[in-house]
Write a structure and sequence with these properties.
Helices cover about 40% and strands about 15% of the residues. It is of the alpha/beta class. The protein has a five-stranded mixed beta sheet with strand order 2-1-3-4-5, with helices on both faces. A hairpin with a 5-residue loop joins strand 1 and strand 2. Helix 2 packs parallel to helix 8 and helix 4 runs parallel beside helix 5. The radius of gyration is 16 Å and the shape is globular. The two termini are about 30 Å apart. About 40% of the residues are buried. The model has no long low-confidence stretch (mean pLDDT about 95). The structure holds zinc ion. Zinc ion binds next to helix 5.
Length: about 200
């Protein structure tokens, strides 16, 4: 264990993200605009072959982008780097606090191109975001072979009980099209204990 220090951890977004965001609007006032960005990130991630077909982003209450996320599980050798986890972690680093909402003083939204898996569902209340906006449904991800994990059947209510409003099915068809593109291209389906 004395050598573990050399495995210090950082999250690297794929190189295309910066240029991609340079062409994006300054603000994303509506749910549709926020999800459209998450879906575009997912689509780029597939087309650039930098990860799975999932994108996410954290926005402040004015709709300004705080941090993007894409799935980089395979390229980073890290099972926790789902798009939502990347967006949450980068937002926290950018804001300089582990609680994005700053103990309820600020309102932030997480947009996800597909509904969260069990891990990301679990991470959302700890992140401090107060809204979750989703495109594709978890069953859409399962249909192409992804495992969403042991998620509570009433997961939306569980989040709403904790003060996190959930909006589903925003541009669902556009989000599903990215999942289908990934499947059509023969993208890797990485799942718990079933790699290879
Ligand atoms: Zn996840």
């Amino acid at each position: 264990v004395e050598a573990l220090g050399q495995f210090g951890f950082r999250i690297d977004l794929p190189p295309w993200v910066e240029e991609f965001l340079g062409r994006a609007p300054e603000v994303f006032p509506t749910d549709e605009e926020r999800i459209r960005l998450a879906i575009s990130l997912a689509r780029q991630n597939v087309e650039q072959q930098t990860g799975g077909p999932f994108g996410a982003a954290v926005f402040d209450e004015h709709g300004r982008l705080v941090a993007p996320g894409v799935n980089v599980v395979v390229t980073s050798n890290c099972s926790i780097l789902h798009a939502e986890m990347v967006a949450i972690a980068l937002a926290q680093q950018k804001l300089g606090r582990y609680d994005i909402g700053n103990q309820g003083r600020s309102r932030y939204a997480l947009a996800a191109s597909t509904e969260p898996c069990a891990m990301c569902f679990g991470a959302i209340p700890w992140s401090g975001v107060t809204r979750l906006v989703c495109g594709a449904r978890d069953e859409d991800a399962r249909r192409i072979g992804f495992d969403e994990g042991p998620k509570l059947p009433g997961w939306q209510e569980a989040l709403q009980t904790r003060g996190i409003r959930v909006t589903r099915d925003v541009l669902r068809e556009e989000a599903v099209a990215v999942l289908d593109l990934y499947a059509d291209l023969g993208g890797q389906i990485y799942n718990p204990g079933r790699q290879g």
